[in-house]
Design brief:
Blueprint (H helix, E strand, L loop, with lengths): L11 E3 L2 E3 L3 E3 L14 H11 L5 E8 L19 H13 L3 E7 L17 E2 L13 E2 L2 H20 L4 E5 L5 H6 L14 H18 L5 E7 L10 H13 L5 E5 L6 H4 L14 H8 L6 E4 L5 H9 L5 E4 L1 H5 L3 H6 L17 H5 L29 E5 L3 H12 L3 E5 L8 H5 L10 H12 L3 E3 L6 H7 L3 E4 L3 E3 L11 E3 H6 L7 E6 L4 H12 L3 E6 L10 H13 L3 E3 L2 E6 L3 E6 L5 E5 L3 E5 L2 E3 L2 H6 L6 E3 L9 H14 L1
Parallel strand pairs: 3-4, 3-12, 4-5, 5-8, 6-7, 8-9, 9-10, 10-11, 11-12, 13-14, 13-16, 14-15, 16-27, 18-25, 19-20, 19-25, 20-21
Antiparallel strand pairs: 1-2, 17-26, 22-23, 23-24
The protein binds flavin mononucleotide and iron/sulfur cluster.
Length: about 650
């Protein structure tokens, strides 16, 4: 029993069913569904978390209508073929004293997924456009609404037959039910619009149909937005009225409060909030809902430490705390909390890169810090070494650190060399970007793991091939990273500095700055934000379609908003050509025409990196086994560096 988190690990009940603790894994699309059903990869993913202590599992947004041929991996309960998969998860949960709910949903006008590449049709209470996928929905007729109510009832019945304990309807985040609930998105004049009664009718009928098709002890609840942060979304007063009514009619056994709205870029960026959003941002809304209902209130959002979760319970803001990315980054989050080992938790840094970043680009979820996530079926990544070896790893950036952790975890004897006085490589710089301090958690998490696994770390050591050959290790991993690349072109008289030197504070810039951003990622955005907030007039010139083009969209949306507030001028579709003492010359990437910026004091270049691979070349063919990981092979991001660190260490 936890001494540090007594409230978090105290039991509670929902509709008379016991939750062993107050931590649940909230619904999240894993991208691991196979043909609409739970398959081996999904099962193993959930197993890694259910067996490690969560009190409640709510699985991902699941459709109730058939989605034949949909390429976007998503669960579906539209036929009895879903039952064996759901049953496997239900059995798993019950063997581990964990409750299990399925989240049922309909995207409404927020339908972004095609069957065959053509645009999908979308439906909504009213014919109003949404701003995310730019869908103009078809207004649902009353027979369409009634059909859907029936389908939800059937879907719940299938979950019930599979042994699932309950269903959560996704009635928030701007999807179909939420559209009905919002007086601004639902402008119907029939029985399903208008008054509170009318707008909630679809949801109330659906809950009633689910109760009728299941049993008295089956748990029913809603996930609803405290507010949607979107033009025609729900606001807190709407939510409170709706929750009061649902409880008054005895339709819900719990309310799960979120804050997001999929119908706009602003609202959708809160579905999976990046690190620029404050931790626990949904708690005030959960607390407001708690004040108007007596059923248990759940909430989830940017709670990645048990200390914060405990505080949320103790302060009475919520009854049960949901975590998603904290459990993606560390499947042992609950176990380590229960054992009072919070320092051992690999805290999620809300970078969004490999979890929702993968999901929204059609891949199974993973984690940049813990790429083992989503790869649970790849047993070779988890096996111990049969022969213990002496391994030299050169380079203390994310690739080298991860390789060292994994190789040591497998039983090898590791020495990790870093030429500077600090571990972390480029992540040290990335964490210095405005609003990105949390990224540094990646380094401290890895440092802690190095320590736990007894890796010998030698800093301030520039390793040469001769040094390696003299010790004759069984295996060598080269992870020597990359250095900033100077742009090609004419820059003789220009005051031209690298983005990293600006971030490091090694150089001063003038009042008027142009940033040449070839990478279209965090660096250009971050340097622009830093310099504009320090008072420079900044133009961010992007060699792409938009600033932040290559980064996860929710991170980008919020950053673009900050740059707009700071008055940064963003110029897309340009490539750097040259600069002189006060003019920067760009070229339009489509027409080749010159685009000039005059009166410029400083040109900042974020023009990529060059791999540092000399050691690898020098050792090639001369050591027992040679591996390389990360930027020294091809400069990319921390995600690939850590993944390759894992892969090479698993091969040794
Ligand atoms: C990969 C991914 C997929 C998600 N899919 C869903 C979903 O299907 N339904 C839902 O209600 N929320 C979904 N969410 C939102 C999460 O439930 C949660 O609210 C969000 O991640 C914030 O919580 P966290 O900070 O603990 O990650 C998803 C989140 C992630 C990371
Ligand atoms: S990829 Fe980033 S945001 Fe996603 S779980 Fe891992 S650390 Fe958290």
């Amino acid at each position: 029993m936890s001494k540090m988190f007594p409230n978090l690990f105290s039991p509670t009940e929902i509709r008379g069913k016991r939750l062993k603790n107050r931590l649940f894994l909230a619904a999240h699309g894993t991208g691991l569904a196979e043909d609409g059903k739970v398959g081996g990869a999904g099962y193993e993913y959930y197993k890694a978390r259910v067996t490690r202590g969560i009190g409640l599992l709510i699985t991902e947004a699941t459709q109730v209508v058939p989605t034949p041929g949909q390429k976007y991996a998503q669960l579906n309960v539209s036929s009895d073929t879903c039952i064996p998969g759901l049953k496997s998860i239900a059995d798993l949960c019950h063997e581990n004293d964990c409750l299990y709910f399925v989240q049922l949903f309909h995207p409404g006008r927020g339908n972004g997924h095609s069957m065959d590449g053509s645009r999908p049709m979308s439906i909504a209470p009213s014919e109003l456009p949404e701003e995310r996928y730019h869908n103009m929905p078809r207004t649902m007729t009353v027979p369409m609404i009634r059909d859907l109510v029936t389908e939800f009832g059937k879907g719940a019945a299938r979950a019930h037959r599979a042994g699932v304990d309950g269903v959560e309807i996704l009635a928030g985040m701007g999807y179909l039910f939420a559209e009905f609930l919002s007086p601004r998105a639902n402008i119907r004049t029939d029985a399903y619009g208008g008054s509170l009664e009318g707008r909630t009718r679809f949801l109330r009928e659906t809950l009633a149909a689910m109760r009728a098709s299941t049993s008295e002890d089956f748990i029913l609840g809603v996930r609803i937005s405290g507010e949607e942060s979107s033009v025609d979304g729900i606001e807190l007063e709407d939510t409170l009225e709706i929750c009061r009514l649902l409880e008054h009619e005895g339709l819900v056994d719990f309310v799960n409060v979120c804050v997001a709205g999929a119908q706009s870029l602003n609202g959708s960026s809160l579905i999976v909030p990046p690190m620029s959003v404050e931790t626990g941002y949904t708690l005030p809304y959960a607390q407001a809902v708690k004040e108007v209902v007596s059923v248990p209130v759940l909430t989830c959002g940017r709670i990645n430490q048990p200390q914060d979760a405990e505080r949320a319970i103790t302060s009475g803001q919520t009854d049960v705390v949901g975590v998603v990315r904290a459990l993606i980054a560390d499947p042992e989050f609950v176990e380590k909390s229960r054992e009072d080992r919070p320092d051992d938790i690999r805290a999620c840094i809300a970078c969004n890169q490999a979890c929702i970043g993968h999901r929204l680009t059609g891949y199974g979820i993973s984690c940049i810090q813990y790429p083992e996530t989503g790869r649970e079926t790849q047993r070779e990544l988890f096996r111990s070494a049969t022969v213990k070896k002496a391994v030299t790893i050169v380079g203390g950036g994310p690739a080298g650190m991860k390789a060292a952790v994994v190789a040591a975890r497998r039983g090898h004897r590791i020495t990790l060399f870093e030429k500077s006085g600090r571990l972390g490589g480029q992540a040290l710089l990335a964490q210095a970007l405005p609003g990105r301090a949390e990224f540094g958690g990646l380094i401290s998490n890895l440092e802690h793991e190095l320590e736990r696994h007894g890796v010998a770390v030698k800093k301030n050591t520039q390793v040469t091939a001769e040094m390696v050959l003299a010790t004759n290790p069984d295996a060598v991993v080269v992870a020597t990273g990359a250095v900033p690349r100077m742009p090609s072109g004419e820059f003789e008289e220009a005051n031209c500095v690298s983005a990293w030197d600006v971030i490091n504070g090694r150089v001063k810039v003038g009042a008027r700055v142009v940033i040449a951003d070839w990478r279209c990622d965090w660096i250009g955005l971050g340097v622009a934000e830093k310099l504009a907030s320090e008072g420079s007039v900044v133009t961010l010139c992007v060699n792409g379609e938009m600033a932040g083009q290559t980064i996860q969209r929710y991170v980008r949306y919020r950053w673009i908003g900050r740059l707009h507030d700071l008055g940064v001028d963003v110029v897309p579709y340009v490539r750097l050509f040259g600069a002189d003492s006060d003019t920067v010359y760009m070229q339009h990437i489509m027409t080749g025409e010159p685009v000039m910026f005059e009166g410029v004091d400083t040109l900042v270049y974020a023009t990529g990196h060059t791999a540092v691979a000399d050691l690898f070349t020098d050792l090639d063919g001369k050591v027992n086994a040679l591996y390389a990981a990360g930027d020294c092979m091809s400069p990319r991001t921390a995600e690939e560096a850590i993944l390759e660190g894992l892969k090479v260490a698993s091969e040794i």
